Amino acid sequence: MSEEKALWTDQEIEDTKKQVMEALETVIDPELGIDIVNLGLVYEVNIYDEGFCEVKITLTTMGCPLADVITEDILNAIKPIPKIKETQVKLVWYPAWDPSRMSRYARIALGIR
């Protein structure tokens, strides 16, 4: 029985994940004017050997009418990354988002203490 050999090293996966996170910082929430990373909307990014990227995000409210816009912006932001062949955005609601997930930068920009 032969073992499957990983196509990418752990370092390559981490480097690609870092590129994805940097790309996600360019995706701006249209209502708040802050990027989705600093807002704490990105819950998880997974990179797989085949160049598949899975991004798990949430939104500030369940009925957010801009979910499709944000998803499309995410796909467009990640598209230029050479190692990523396909991206899937998964919308999750648990744990529920709250302002404590925001970075210091986002809090200052929004005037929240």
TrEMBL record:
Residues 17-90 form the MIP18 family-like domain. InterPro entries: Fe-S_Maturation_MIP18, FSCA_dom_sf, MIP18-like. This is Aromatic ring hydroxylating protein. The lineage of its organism: Bacteria, Bacillati, Bacillota, Bacilli, Lactobacillales. The gene is yjaF.
